[in-house]
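Q: My collaborator sent me two sequences in one message, no labels, and asked for predicted structures for both. Can we handle them in order? The first one she listed is below.
A: Yes, handling them in the order given. First sequence, followed by its structure tokens:
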Amino acid sequence: MLELFFVNLGQLLSLDTLAIMLGGLLVGLFFGALPGLSATMAVALLLPVTFAMQPDMAIAMLVATYIGGITGGLVSATLLRIPGTPSSIATTFDAYPLARSGEATKALATGMIASAVGGLMSLVVLVAFAPALTRLAIRFGAHEFTALTIAALMLVVVLAHANVVKGLLSAILGLAIATVGFAPIGGAQRFTFGSIDLMGGIGIVPFMVGLFAISEMIRQTVEPSLRIKPNFDIRGSGVRLAEFVGNGWNMLRSGLIGIAIGILPGIGGSASNLVAYGAARQASKTPERFGKGAVEGIYASETANNASVGGALLPLITLGIPGDGVTAILIGGFTIHGLQPGPLLFRNEPDLIGMIYAAFFLATILLLVIQLATIKLFPRVLLVPRRFLLPVLVVLMIVGTYASGNRLFEVWLMLGFGVLGYGTERYGFPLGPMVLGFVLGPIFETNMRRAIMYSNGDLTDFVSRPISAGLLFAAVALLAYGVISLVRQRRVVAT
């Protein structure tokens, strides 16, 4: 695999591929820096663009966009105290006070370097543990994959930013949407209502672009947005080597936290940066400095959120289970090019795995160079007027979605899912479980029906096989935990 890594790294350094990756990085940075936009939206917007690309170039661009979007939130978090993405919430606690004190350059540069360290740490873990996890996953049968999808759904439902009932209903809705069209086994028509357009099922491009990008456009249009008045008086001495070395253990701990949380489906950087920040504050000898411009807090938050990227990619490429919303959309990138993430990907497409590793490494290095070179220029992206930005984005989404299926029906689906996404989030139904339900629906149904056929209808095989029994037990335990937490919250509110 190491040889494939260097071979693919050389291929990525060609002018055309490098330009595509740079474009993805800049789009990710742009979306991450603007409050209200996100890495998820950036990847969803570029997903239709990859339709005409070679698979390796398409995945490389999407990975670069993902990394750029997660890191881009640092800019508005530092200058405006507004996290550009949920992954930068904890960054605002110390980066903004440090910038207000006249050291915006130091705050930005510290976050940029920490992001690169976190990304490279997670890449090492991804390369080291992915083969072992894949060898284990190859032993999975239909029963184990069925139980794994149930456990993943329960984990996302419980950890969603909503009560467990709304999370569960959102996941069920995603599963229901995935059943539209012909059944994967048997070929029966379901929920087509006599429409020829629905017989082919719901495409992942209109679903993802509508649910994330169009819903955000609706929100930006109908809800008042914050007036952006950044301070571009950037001064400061920059990052000192002694500070960087002194935060070595802090970055190592935060990186491991980000990787561990990133692996858990549906959580990602939005939680890892807060957990790492809390751990850094608890371990610090001067906790009173946190919240007043402590560089330890910036190192912790930014290392963790980028480390969660590699963590989220680990279950994606080894098990076919997305670690967060962005990796769920990345499955669309694989699907568009006829690829199926999972244990067989290592055996059937080793060059693609090497390309993912090389793209991750190159994107992280390029991102650091670009950010440090534009540390005084790139923040001005915050001044782009929304009245110019939103119409351009809508046109790009419509054109890209139409191109993905060459049908106007895809565009209507995209707009419909945009309304659905806005409405569900407005009433507290999280999108994460819905996306995971849609992505895992075909996997769950196919393996469930195969398992029943293999067992001649005997459902006890699910609990007699050790791995599937353990995963089902974990799913039940997670659901019980969510219900208990919901009851406790209601008791607290009642008192």
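Q: And the one she listed second?
A: Here it is, processed independently of the first:
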Amino acid sequence: MSQSYRVAILGATGAVGTELLQLLAERQFPLAELRVLASERSAGKRVAFGDETLTVEAVGDRAFDDIDIVLASAGGSRSKQWASVAKAAGAVVIDNSSAFRMDPTVPLVVPEINPDAAADHEGLIANPNCTTILMGVAVYPLHQVHPIRRIIAATYQSASGAGAMAMEEVKVQTQAILDGKTPPTNSFPYPLAFNLFPHNTPLNEAGYCEEEMKMVNETRKIFGVPDLRVSATCIRVPVLRAHSEAINLEFDQPFSPHKAKEILQSAPGVQVVEDWQANYFPMPIDASGIDPVLVGRIRQDLSHPCGLELWLSGDQVRKGAALNAVQIAELLAQRNWVKPASQRQTSFAAVGG
């Protein structure tokens, strides 16, 4: 990457924003400027970036002037509010919320799966849901060899999916329960410490929650298979960080576990973890803080001749959110799909314009 870019992080003080700062420094993204933005109540705070500290600015109408790439992780309502402003200023927005994922004009990108989709951006690219990303990275390499006909997923989702405050709440709940006290519930409707419950997003008429439907609809869009059969059950579990998933795959023909393991051992973004003698397979404690999606326990589905079972763990904050966004930014820079402000003649049209 010979160019350098002016980047803004919207939502810089949250859990994903903090990880974005760390990843931009770790991966030495070519920065001409880094602007950290948040709401007015966070303005003036100091955040770490490598060996430096940066001052958080309040997002406003001129916050995106001369910015090339915006990494947005401030929630759907904030993204809807500010994406059009950033686009009008000429920036490319990589949005981590669900606000634009199913918009047919907005690319939904996982760089290990559909990098070319990012070329079709009109100033806006959507980052998929965490569970969708982790599952997609693990199963798409197999889909490329033998098409998948059906996916059944059960997720075991950590507190990190609800943010830094939710992670802290689980710690407080744990201590309260150990002390014989009633655990407080603010981030979740029920205690998560020493407990688990189905994902608490709203249910549709068929009984599927929003989180489950994200896995269904987003996987279809990313894979480019609009009629792919996908069903999911999403569960919150008392783990601080990193999600796990049990995946059942049905292919168009028999697929040996040995062959699947060989494919996944060389797949981008995947690390196979299998020690059958020790009964050691992917765990969230091992996946936390690292980039790869850990995949293991790859085995034949005893109920179907064309079925495989596998288990995965992946860091929700990292590959499930911040890392995927930074990889998209790197993709834009490497393939010259974003122009620095000094080279731009015109800006993108506003969203909906």
